[in-house]
Amino acid sequence: MTVPLNELREELQYDKTKNCVQCGYCLPVCPTYVTFGTETHSPRGRINLVKMVGEGKITDLSVLEEPLNLCLGCRACETACPTGVEYGSILEAARAAIVKRKKFSLPVRLLRKVMLKKVIPNKKMMNVAGHSIWLYKTSGLQKAARASGIMKNTPYNLGEFESIIPTPTSPIERSRASTEVKAKLKAKYTVAFFTGCIMDSMFHTINQLSIKLLSEVGCDVVVVPKQTCCGALQAHTGEMDEARHLAKQNILAFEQINADFIVNNAGGCGAQLYEYGHLLSNDEEWAEKAAAFSAKSRDISQVLVACGGLPDLQPRHGERVTYQHSCHMTNVQKVNQEPLELLKSIPGIQFIEMEQANMCCGSAGIYNIVNYDASMQILDEKMKHTKATNATVVITTNPGCLLQMKLGIEREGLSHSMRALHLIEYLAEASGVS
């Protein structure tokens, strides 16, 4: 069935494309344009393609698929744009329009449904995934798999990531996790902690350290029951209805706690939570609730700084530290200075700002899995600047960035002299918190 052009324009948010004046300010900050050097892989090129569909000059939406799939969605272009083009909204709408019309094969259709709707939003299923990885890494299965050579033949190059995936928390430790922790001294704020799905299954230790650090600086922390996945992966893959469904579940869950802030420790999750107001802006029943939720959303670095920073930080003499900015934390949440302020408060470190620190590392959710070759080209470019700092520690604020930078260190043969850590891990080390 042919969709009337005016309906298609509304679906694609065509009117927003008119704000792009094709000036090119976005080009030097776009990782895919810098890496591939083609207009179809630039923000203005992609916007022009969407605009041509809205004007009826392109009638086959599959023409958009490759350029949009190779977009990292880092949204650095929005920070450089002099006319305020809402690139994220245009990208989101175009991807959803493509998915709506695309005829996926039965296996792919089932995989998308199972993973995006049944597994990732399901805490029990994600715990099973974490337990399985823990068993694999601690039982001898990992050693056997490596010895057999099977890891070299895994689909989507997953064998490349196998060595850098951290050992998750054991099932026993996970079962002992606190759901409510009081401030060490006088409480300054009550915060509701967002655990995330992948963050809690694979990086549960970082979540627990986050809760302890919040307590150290004066926060009563509540881990909200019945919370679910933020919906970022669903939104990035064009499943907007599912993303909205998850947003509503989280809003209902967090409304039960009278918290000053809703705190997260993952740049990608935080950006999605921050944008619930945008996501549900056209829903009369939910728009006000979503806006209130977004207004309370904070990255953990913001709350730690608001509480005056961490006390009694131990000196880290001789450590050269650099920081890889999370794209979504920087470009969407606009959180830039707080992580740097926390790092620079640690006595004894030598902080080195890398060149093009705001440029994406190539992780972007599951981009490094589904677009492995492109991701590795972008990572190799990032590692040139990382190596130039001669840093001994690379700090990140997002789980995907953390794994990507660990992989970059491995690919460059630098694991003997350089390590990648989440900001919370490093702050916990300096605070003596374990």
Task: Describe the secondary structure blueprint for this structure.
Layout: H1 5-12, H2 14-17, H3 31-36, H4 43-54, H5 62-69, H6 76-80, H7 87-101, H8 106-119, H9 123-138, H10 141-148, H11 158-162, H12 171-175, E1 180-181, E2 189-193, H13 198-202, H14 204-217, E3 219-223, H15 232-236, H16 240-254, E4 261-264, H17 267-274, H18 276-279, H19 287-296, E5 297-299, H20 300-306, E6 320-323, H21 327-331, H22 337-344, E7 350-351, H23 367-370, H24 372-388, E8 393-396, H25 399-411, E9 419-422, H26 423-431
Parallel strand pairs: 2-3, 2-4, 4-5, 6-7, 6-8, 8-9
Antiparallel strand pairs: 1-3
Helix pairs in contact: 4-7, 5-7, 14-26, 20-22, 24-25
Kindly describe this structure.
- The chain has 434 residues and is α/β, with parallel strands linked by helices.
- The protein has 26 helices and nine strands.
- The chain folds into four domains: 5-101, Fumarate Reductase Iron-sulfur Protein, Chain B, domain 2, CATH 1.10.1060.10; 106-162, no CATH class; 171-306; 320-431, 3-Layer(aba) Sandwich (Rossmann fold), CATH 3.40.50.
- The protein has a five-stranded mixed beta sheet. It has a four-stranded parallel beta sheet with strand order 7-6-8-9, sandwiched between helices.
- It is globular and about 60 Å long.
- The model has no long low-confidence stretch (mean pLDDT 93).
- InterPro entries: 4Fe4S_Fe-S-bd, 4Fe4S_Fe_S_CS, Cys_rich_dom, Glc_ox_4Fe-4S, Helical_ferredxn.
- Keywords: 4Fe-4S, Electron transport, Iron, Iron-sulfur, Metal-binding, Repeat, Transport.
- It is an enzyme of class 1 (oxidoreductase).
- GO terms for molecular function: 4 iron, 4 sulfur cluster binding; glycolate dehydrogenase activity; metal ion binding.
